[in-house]
């Protein structure tokens, strides 16, 4: 269980970092993790709505898309 939590945090950080490369900006590791994990949830909703199935690569791609959407929404409301 601990390994699963650590992998979620690390993959979330990777997704958040990739999204920040696309959207511009820099932040701390914690912010990357939060944006990546929440963005992955958004990406998961998108894939289920579009009925897309795939492996880890598809999840990372849609996680980055979801994170970019989250960053855009946060910037719009800030």
Fold topology:
Blueprint: H1 2-23, H2 29-49, H3 56-77
Order of helices and strands: HHH
So what's the overall shape?
A: globular
How much β-strand is present in the residues? under 5%
Overall pLDDT: 88
Q: Tell me the helix content.
A: over 70%
- Based on secondary structure, the structural category is mainly alpha
Q: In total, how many beta strands?
A: 0
Low-confidence stretches: none
For the largest beta-sheet, the strand count, sense and barrel status come to:
none
SS element count, helices? 3
Query: How far is the first residue's CA from the last residue's CA?
Result: 36 Å
Q: What is the radius of gyration?
A: 12 Å
Describe the structure in your own words.
The chain contains 3 helices and no strands. With 78 residues, the protein is mainly alpha-helical. The model has no long low-confidence stretch (mean pLDDT 88).
Give a concise summary:
With 78 residues, the protein is mostly helical.
């Amino acid at each position: 269980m601990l390994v699963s939590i650590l992998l979620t945090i690390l993959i979330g950080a990777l997704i958040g970092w990739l999204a920040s490369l696309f959207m511009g900006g820099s932040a701390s590791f914690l912010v990357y993790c939060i944006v990546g994990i929440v963005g992955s949830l958004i990406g998961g909703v998108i894939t289920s709505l579009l009925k897309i199935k795939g492996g880890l690569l598809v999840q990372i791609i849609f996680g980055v898309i979801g994170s970019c959407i989250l960053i855009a929404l946060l910037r719009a409301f800030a």
